[in-house]
Specification:
The protein is α/β, with parallel strands linked by helices. The chain contains nine helices and 16 strands. The protein has a single domain, classed as Alpha-Beta Barrel (TIM Barrel). The protein has an eight-stranded parallel sheet with strand order 3-16-15-10-9-8-7-4. It binds succinic acid. Succinic acid binds next to loops.
Length: about 300
């Protein structure tokens, strides 16, 4: 069994691909994704200018996941346009997704416009949830600013599907408020969730925090965040599932985790921490586990699973 997926006019050969973050910044990492079983090549969130990001140490793995404060280290969006051109030649059947970030509305608008005009990029994911920039709040926690920005973004012409990377919401009132904003725009998908923010992990041996930036606070991925991710996927599926695709991201490290995200309402999933930990081999392994699991359960199509959580 294989499952293809559609976002707007773009066909993905499978439902599992990488999240923007781990192992997708350099040309070598992007080629490795192209050569892997990932169903797309998602590029690192890029900004108008290159950024070196936050001071090291800024990423650590722990038993239950990972903590990071990378600070949007990237080569600047013009480089990602060049990388996409090379990648498209090598991997013509794999969708290329640009992840876009900015520090003011004009940044976002410039990048959306330039990527809309870039023939080698297929899909745009606008990152409204970058957690790690000193002194900058996450846009998606400010509903009025999100609304203003989206209104401007959707005046830019172009036929590439546009989606949003959202942070986790922890209060149903906030989820509903964001859904009301999102309903107003022709958004193709939302990715739920970015890492869970402002957390502190202490090493009792050294008596130190694990990472240096931003008062040692970092953003969690991995096992720690799966229940939060599932709750956000489910809530947005209920609120918006008839209008846009929900992409699940958070705590997926095996085929059963993919199944749970689909039951909650995701129609595709992205891998983050497991990709840091295991490298690109994780795609083939998790795909195989997922197919075996759903086949053993008697499913014949992914559509039978999506959103069909058996509610109590
Ligand atoms: C980072 O580069 O700090 C992470 C970006 C993100 O998670 O949006």
């Amino acid at each position: 069994m294989t499952f293809t997926a559609q976002i707007g006019n773009v066909t993905f050969p499978d439902i599992i691909y990488n999240s923007s973050g781990p192992r997708c910044t350099t040309p070598e990492e992007l080629v490795a994704l192209g050569n892997s079983e990932s169903s797309a090549i998602m590029m690192k969130s890029c900004s108008p200018e290159p950024r070196t990001g936050n001071p090291e140490p800024r990423y650590k793995e722990v038993e239950l996941g990972s903590i990071n404060s990378i600070g949007l280290a990237n080569h600047g969006y013009k480089k990602y346009i060049e990388y996409a051109t090379d990648l498209k030649k090598q991997f013509p059947d794999k969708p290329i997704v640009a992840s876009i970030v900015g520090f003011c509305h004009e940044d976002f608008l410039q990048l959306v416009e330039d990527f809309q005009n870039e023939p080698n990029v297929d899909v745009l994911e606008v990152n409204l949830s970058c957690p790690n920039v000193v002194g900058k709040p996450q846009i998606a926690y400010d509903f009025e600013t999100s609304d203003e920005l989206l209104e401007k973004i959707f005046t830019i012409s172009g036929n590439k599907p546009i989606g949003l990377k959202l942070p986790p919401y922890f209060d149903p009132v906030h989820t509903a408020s964001m859904a009301e904003v999102l309903k107003k725009y022709p958004i193709s998908f939302i990715t739920c969730i970015n890492s869970v923010g402002n957390t502190l992990i202490i090493d009792p041996e050294t008596e130190q925090p694990l990472i240096a930036p931003k008062w040692w606070l970092g953003w969690l991925g991995g096992d720690y965040v799966k229940p939060v991710a599932l709750a956000n996927v489910r809530a947005f599926y209920k609120l918006l599932g008839d209008r846009m695709r929900i992409i699940g991201c958070g705590g997926i490290k095996n085929g059963v985790d993919v199944f749970e995200h689909l039951l909650a309402g995701a129609s595709m999933v992205q891998l983050g921490t497991v990709l840091w930990k295991e490298d690109v081999e994780c795609f083939g392994r998790i795909q195989k586990e997922f197919y075996e699991y759903v086949e053993n359960k008697g499913y014949t199509s992914v559509d039978e699973v999506i959103g069909n959580l058996k509610e109590l």
